Amino acid sequence: MKVPIIMTPGPTMVRANVRLARAEETTNPDIDLSFYDFYEDTCLKMANILKTHNQVRILSGEGILGLEAACASLTEKDDRVLIIENGVFGEGFGDFVKIYGGKPVYFRGDRKHKINLEDLKFFLEKDSNFKYATVVHCDTPSGVLNEIDKICPLLKEKGILTVVDSVAAMGGEELRVDDWNIDIVIGGSQKCLSAPPGLTILSISKDAFDVMENRKTQIASFYCNILNWRDYYKDKWFPYTPPISDIMGIRRAVENILEEKDILDRHMKIAKATREAIVSSGLELHTYDGYSNTVTVFNVPKNLDDKKVRKYMVDNFNVMIAGSFDYLDGKVLRIGHMGENARVHTVSYTLVALQKSLEMYGVKFKKDMAEVFFKEMEGCGIIIP
Ligand SMILES: *Cc1c(COP(=O)(O)O)cnc(C)c1O
Questions:
Q1: Do 227 and 281 lie in a common domain?
Q2: Ligand 1 centroid vs 30 CA: distance in angstroms?
Q3: What are the phi and psi torsion angles at 170 (to 5°)?
Q4: Residue ranges making up the domain that contains 311
Q5: What are 21-51's pLDDT values in tens digits?
Q6: Nearest CA residue ID for atom 11, ligand 1
Q7: Rounded Cα–Cα distance for residues 351 and 346 (Å)
């Protein structure tokens, strides 16, 4: 299989030491008690990244499992759940709530803007009778970044539990779970953490565990039951055999992040330079604000087929960027500068490939994107290898 440079908003590139960690010989993770310590220690390192004292669990399944597990574990029949949405993933939370018998109530934001805090405050003044609320940190199809640092404390003030999908932001955007009052935050291995797809990471507050514990009805799932995971260490029991090679891989990826001096600063500088290159060359960023430092989303130039451009990029430059889906299908292109992707050499090469490919299809550029990008990076005083 020929592997392109995957500059997509997940899955991202995986560093060699993570790939090698997954190839190591393994023990029986159910029976060998030393694995419980290894797993616990990996969760603690993850908690360090999340700035939390809450319990962290790493479950076997893609990010979607984390989203569904949060909804399955919290929702009882007829529970009112506030779905704060300004994008595809934001709205999708409502479907999980329905599956488990809850009643989603939507707070709909403008999809070209981050969630408006004043509007949300106004809404909550009138109605705040919700068991929990869901919100997405970075809604990847549009790249919009929401201010969960302000949204979650606002919700908790009203006694509403907070559930945040940070799959596309965790590890690349600031995330302070304790300071920001996030009851459940969900991440995925294949985005900024730069491990292969297959794992979801959750931190769970005491308030969230208490609500699960005090349900009137049983959680209507086994695989999505977070409560099953609460006492694994004390009981030396996992609900199912943990995917030990995946855990060894993510452990290494988490250590890579902790060993780096300032991974958020790297994301911030790369993202800012990428946006500057896009805008000054004459292309258009998709949203009007709320730019995530993990993905840059821009409009497909008029009368152009994004699939053709992307195919040209792969065929001629071996670089893969992403289109989008749902209401944005064919309308935007996305460069993922998450985790291992967020490097000067990979992003600059992607911009060269993108510009040459768009020029092939007749798009005119006001400036050379790679040149603008390099100038911005120099302005920051760093060139990261
Ligand atoms: C990637 C992602 C997920 C996981 O979904 P997949 O489409 O299965 O990769 C969940 N939420 C967000 C915001 C994501 O970016």
A1: no
A2: 29
A3: -55, 120
A4: 262-379
A5: 999 999 999 999 999 999 999 999 999 999 9
A6: 167
A7: 9
